[in-house]
Amino acid sequence: MSSASTTDQVVHPPAPPLAPIAERAAAPSTLPAVTAGDLTWRPATSADAPALLTLRNDIAEADQEPYRETLDEIEELFTAPWRDVAADTLVGADADGALRAYAMVDTNPGDARTVRVFLAGGVHPTHRARGIGREVLAWQVARARQVLAASGKELPARLALYGEDSDPPAKVRLYARFGFAPRRFYADLRRDLAAPVPEVPLDGSLRLVPWSPELDEATRLAHNDAFRDHWGSEPRTAEAWTHGRSHHAPQWSFLVVDDAPDVDALLAGAETEDLVDEETAAALRAGEPLVVGYQMASRYDEDFPVRGYSFGYTDILGVRRAYRGRRVAVAALAAGMRAFAADGMQYASLDVDTENPSGAHGLYASLGYEKVSGSRMYSIEI
To answer: Are 258 and 222 in contact (CB under 8 A)?
Structure first.
């Protein structure tokens, strides 16, 4: 037993104030040249989408990644209104015009707690071991630092990239060489839909409904509230929330609404965000519908042959903090599983942060989800 009194408190010194983001980002005035591999380098354009799709899928096959992409997904990379494609992308073409490497950096316009820049890139398997990957990543890091510096957001900052647990060792070593450390780990789970799906009654004025466009903004607000206490999560703006839905499956997506919320009780915690955030408070005062939980799903047919089975995919599952403990997530998830099964899918699939603070990993295990593979986020914290 400690000799300290149980009333003693450990006083931690306050964290030192952050230096200005323009200083912390250490952004270079010019970007490093990419010259390796005898390739011609230029920014990507929307006309590159088919070639970029081929390149990315060739890389995914070589690295045994458990997914493939579609042209619609690639075209979405060029249509996000907040992206500066000319400044934030790079492609390398060989003498025949075929793309052999690419680089992209991207940021989230809604970041309010940590300003982040995400890096994505790769080299075709036929052009590896030529120094291309090293130069491409150097360009990405430099450009990402410029984006951070230009953000003007005086917040903690992060450069981040994602990889599979099965990534080639050379790729992992390259990340480490540039200072990226594995920071977060994710589990790819699946659940056999041949097993019975539980019926989950909801209490009080809670009601399960199909997703609809009319409730989509209320769902965005629910998402931003649900993930306020999740590491690495940031608010989604309306434009970011609706962008990139080429695989969205509305017939597989379900919401839980509260038809008679205790508005006064919810608003009582608005100032401290104990129960609702400011956007939700405004919606409640305006009499807007209150979505309290959601299961948003997508269909990735191109992944079925890669994985060897068909599946419905839960992109995001969340519950407002004021409604946790009322089986809202289970009801929405079970509705999605029944919809998957009704359309002939063999499995329900999703990814979960292994350190999710809401206990989601335990929830999925209790419903029969099992790990299939894993991925991780590497980052440089600034």
So the answer is: no
DSSP H stretches of helix in the chain: 21-24, 49-62, 71-76, 85-88, 132-151, 169-177, 216-226, 238-242, 263-268, 278-285, 304-307, 328-342, 360-366
pLDDT in tens, 237-284: 999 999 999 999 999 999 999 999 999 989 886 555 567 888 999 999
Claim to verify: residue 92 and residue 164 sit in the same structural domain:
yes
Domain of 296, CATH number, reads 3.40.630.30
> Which pair of structure tokens corresponds to residue 296?
């948003």
Q: What is the pLDDT of residues 20-70, one digit of tens each?
A: 999 999 999 999 999 999 999 999 999 999 999 999 999 999 999 999 999
The reported pTM is 0.89
Task: Flag whether 252 is in a domain.
Answer: yes
Spell out the SS3 assignment of 22-67: HHHCCCCCCCCCCCHHHCEEECCCHHHHHHHHHHHHHHHHHCCCCC
Domain count, the chain: 2
Distance CA 84, CA 253 (A): 32
